[in-house]
Write a structure and sequence with these properties.
alpha+beta; 6-stranded antiparallel sheet
């Protein structure tokens, strides 16, 4: 059983825990009370007034290092231990010495993320490698309160949500050591670890018959002959970095069979959209990719996507695991490419639209949403089964061709949030943030009652 309850603090000595009147399964007065990775033996009694609330004596709260925060918490019971929580640690890097903006430009994102903690019944904080007190088993966590950021010492958390900002930080040896130690020595579930590698994602998904139909033909770059063959098959292809993000480094190569010429659409270093014409594929590469390593690039089948005002449209779909451990589609938006742009990214002139803004017919809206939901729930389940680590959220970039087929362009383990700038998508911004933390409730319960499922 897990349910969230309001917390009261009792100003008296002794280690006493008053549990909600409705709670069943408490068969003795002396039990272990746990918060994060700390636990203390305390006298357990039902609420003195028969109410469904939790009361902690100040000495018990002090020993468990439970901060006096507003909002309810969940109560989990397993054998002789009552677990209060979850306590969620959000691991990141890039801290600044400024109290008002402890994470620089990302401070607003984290403050919005932590603002949902009351609604899910959890305590959540931000921390980095330098906030950990290994000898004491505690962390000087950054909590976001009504008056701003506050540093509070708490036990190691029940669950850790990985929010490292980029691949560079992910590769730092010290950060990898922190992750390894907390996971393996302290058996703390760590979710959303790592950034996806595009090629690895496609190779994993190809192993699942249900998801294979969503995959455009994709290969690591090996030769011009590969591109020539794919151009003959599809008319255009995309050349993209295996580990790229935000649309950086993507080139669309088009072959005009009537003219016998090659075209390349891309964004230059100044951020200007370019379209260049070449007599041969070799001359295209010698001009645009001179002194560049092509071994880190992928070649992907071009899709004849739906268009609005002659501009390609693709779709961003967010999926999250909820407090029961089930995948949910939490946001869907359309993105229209900027004039002459190779991608639909906003920074390249793209526009964010809701599905009703793109499709006038209610029947067509329902059809598009149903197709996208089915595809993304299929893909989410497949990636969860195929990838290492615990995945709790995914951002998908998909296209729909003129025949109505859904195609996966990319999957992102730490999806950007540009679609939520659209005023009609604000509620989904809230939902995605809420579920990204609510998943920790499921993980906490699993780690208590069925740890073999988490650490298999």
């Amino acid at each position: 059983m897990n349910k969230q309850y309001p917390i009261q603090w009792l100003d008296e000595e002794g280690l006493t825990f008053y549990y909600p009147a409705e709670l069943k399964g408490v068969k003795q007065t002396d039990m272990q009370i746990a918060y994060g990775t700390f636990s203390v033996t305390a006298k357990c009694l039902p609420h003195p007034e028969g109410r469904n609330r939790i009361i902690l004596t100040k000495e018990l709260a002090k020993q468990l290092k439970i901060p006096k925060l507003a909002g309810p918490l969940h109560l989990f019971i397993n054998e002789k231990t009552l677990y209060l929580g979850p306590l969620i640690g959000i691991f990141t890097s890039g801290f600044t010495p400024f109290k008002v903006r402890p994470l620089g430009e990302r401070t607003l994102f984290f403050s919005k993320l932590l603002s949902v903690k009351k609604t899910i019944g959890a305590h959540a904080f931000i921390f980095g490698e330098n906030h950990i007190n290994w000898e004491d088993g505690t962390i000087n966590g950054l909590f976001y309160q009504e008056k701003g950021w506050e540093t509070i010492e708490v036990p190691f958390p029940n669950v850790i949500y990985d929010r490292l900002p980029n691949r560079r930080s992910e590769k730092r040896v010290r950060l990898a050591q922190v992750k390894d130690r907390l996971q393996n020595d302290y058996l703390i579930p760590w979710y959303n670890p790592g950034f996806f590698n595009k090629l690895e994602i496609f190779e994993k998904l190809q192993q699942d018959q249900k998801c294979e139909k969503y995959l455009p033909e994709t290969h690591p770059f090996t030769s011009f002959s590969l591109i020539e063959r794919m151009l003959a098959d599809y008319g255009h292809v995309y050349l993209k970095p295996k580990n790229g993000s935000l649309g950086n480094g993507i080139h669309q190569i088009i072959y005009n069979a009537v003219e016998g010429h090659y075209y390349c659409r891309y964004q230059d270093k100044q951020g200007d959209n370019k379209l260049r014409k070449y007599q041969t594929l070799e001359s295209l590469f010698s001009n645009l990719f001179k002194n560049k390593r092509l071994t880190g690039m992928l070649v992907q089948q071009g899709i004849h996507s739906l268009r609005v005002d002659k501009r390609p449209v693709d779709f961003r779909v967010h999926t999250n695991k909820d407090a029961l451990g089930n995948w949910k589609v939490t946001a869907i938006a359309a993105k229209i490419a900027g004039l002459g742009s190779v991608t639909t990214h906003v920074k390249n002139g793209g526009e964010i639209k809701t599905i009703p803004e793109i499709f006038e017919s209610a029947a067509q809206q329902e059809e598009i949403i149903a197709k996208l939901k089915t595809a993304c729930l299929d893909l989410s389940s497949c990636l969860e089964n195929q990838m290492n680590g615990i995945i709790g959220e995914i951002g998908f970039d998909l296209g729909i061709d003129r025949e109505g087929n859904v195609w996966l362009f990319e999957a992102n383990s730490k999806p950007g949030r540009s679609i939520f700038k659209h005023p009609q998508l604000k509620e989904y911004d809230m939902l995605t943030r809420k579920l990204s933390l609510a998943f920790s409730i499921f993980l906490t319960e699993q780690s208590i009652s069925r740890p073999e499922e988490i650490f298999k």
